[in-house]
Amino acid sequence: MSNKVTEFFKGAFEDMKESAKAQHEVDKANFAAAKAESKAQFEEAKAMSNPEKRKAMMQAERDEQIAAANKRIAEAQERIDSAKK
After folding, report:
1. Residue 57 in contact with residue 48, Cβ under 8 Å?
2. Cα(38)–Cα(17) distance, rounded to whole angstroms?
3. Could you please report the per-residue DSSP string of 7-49?
4. Rounded to an integer, what is the distance from CA 83 to the centroid of its chain?
5. What is the C-alpha to C-alpha distance for residues 61 and 22, in angstroms, rounded to an integer?
6. Which pTM was predicted?
C-alpha cells in the first residue's frame, strides 16, 4: 500500500511540475506581448507629438474608415440589387 501512495504522489508532483513549467511559458509569452504593446503605444504617442506624423497617421485612419464605409455601401447595394430580382 505504501508503494502505491508513493507512486501516486510522485506522479502528482511530476504533473504539477510540468504544469508549472507550461504556465511559466504562458506567463513569459503574455509578458512579452504586454511589453511589445506598451512599446507600440509609447511610439504612437511619441509620433503624435510630431505634427506631420500625426497628420499622416490620422489621414491613414480616415482613409481606412472611408474604405470600410465604401465596402459596406457596396455590400448594401448588392443586397438591394438581389432583393429587386
Report:
1. yes
2. 31
3. HHHHHHHHHHHHHHHHHHHHHHHHHHHHHHHHHHHHHHHHHHT
4. 38
5. 39
6. 0.53
Among the listed ranges 16-25, 46-55, 59-68, which one has the minimum average pLDDT value?
A: 46-55
| In the chain, domain spans | 1-49, 51-85
Q: Which residue has the cell 470600410?
A: 68
47: Cβ contacts below 8 Å, ≥ 6 apart: 53, 54, 57
**Is the confidence at residue 2, as pLDDT, over 80?**
no
Distance CA 56, CA 47 (A): 10
- Tell me which amino acid residue 84 is: K
